[in-house]
Recover the amino acids of this structure.
């Protein structure tokens, strides 16, 4: 069995450089690869294209990369609660490709499965479909969307083993699974890393074949994007 374990986030992100395309898992602030994002910020690489559901908030998640102007293009489905993301998009400083959320997931899944493209009804008749091939199937119109091409996919899981097998927890099982194996190199950071053979095979969500590097993260903040509480009665 191939050992995918690396000893640090620095080793896990070896080979990153300017002008690369990255996939980053997470939804809002749930299940984002916190350690990797910090390493990318510290690396000062720039001109990045980032594929992610959203860009976190102003002072956390991908918002940290936006703040340092390291991202040239965001491929997302939601501007979210990030004022800087909104400002850069509206001012033209940041190239933004907004995609329906389901299409974003399926373009990741297509890349994961090795399919070059998919047909989807989402976006037909709107600006999303402009300049794209449209085809009719059984009386319904579909838009051709190409699978993503990325250099690295950075994901966050709850548990993993040395062979790269992953288990996600709760809502962190969002865009993370479909991004595994959808790039040239998939890097997984986990809260708990155990020896191969320790995990129950029936509980594994992503097999290690989709992961090239895995490491145990630390100091997770796990911030809440919007805290909602009930008024005490």
């Amino acid at each position: 069995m191939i050992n995918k374990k690396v000893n640090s986030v620095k080793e896990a992100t070896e080979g990153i450089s300017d002008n690369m395309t990255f996939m980053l898992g997470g939804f809002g602030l749930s299940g984002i690869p916190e350690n990797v994002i910090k390493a990318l910020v510290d690396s000062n690489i720039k001109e990045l294209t980032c594929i992610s559901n959203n860009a976190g908030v102003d002072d956390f998640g991908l918002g940290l990369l936006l703040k340092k102007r390291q991202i040239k293009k965001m491929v997302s489905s939601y501007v979210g609660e990030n004022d800087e993301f909104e400002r850069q998009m509206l001012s033209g400083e940041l190239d933004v490709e907004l995609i329906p959320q389901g299409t974003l997931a399926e373009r990741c899944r297509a890349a994961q499965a090795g399919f070059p493209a998919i047909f989807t009804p989402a976006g037909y008749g709107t600006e999303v479909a402009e300049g794209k091939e449209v085809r009719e199937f059984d009386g319904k119109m579909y838009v051709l969307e190409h699978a993503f091409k990325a250099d690295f996919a950075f994901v966050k899981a709850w548990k993993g083993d040395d062979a790269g097998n992953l288990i996600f927890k709760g809502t962190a099982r969002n865009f993370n699974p479909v991004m595994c194996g959808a790039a040239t190199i998939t890097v997984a950071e986990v809260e708990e890393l155990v020896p191969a053979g320790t995990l129950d095979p029936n509980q594994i969500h992503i097999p290690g074949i989709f992961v090239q590097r895995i490491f145990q993260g630390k100091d997770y903040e796990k911030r809440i994007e919007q805290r909602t509480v009930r008024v005490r009665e």
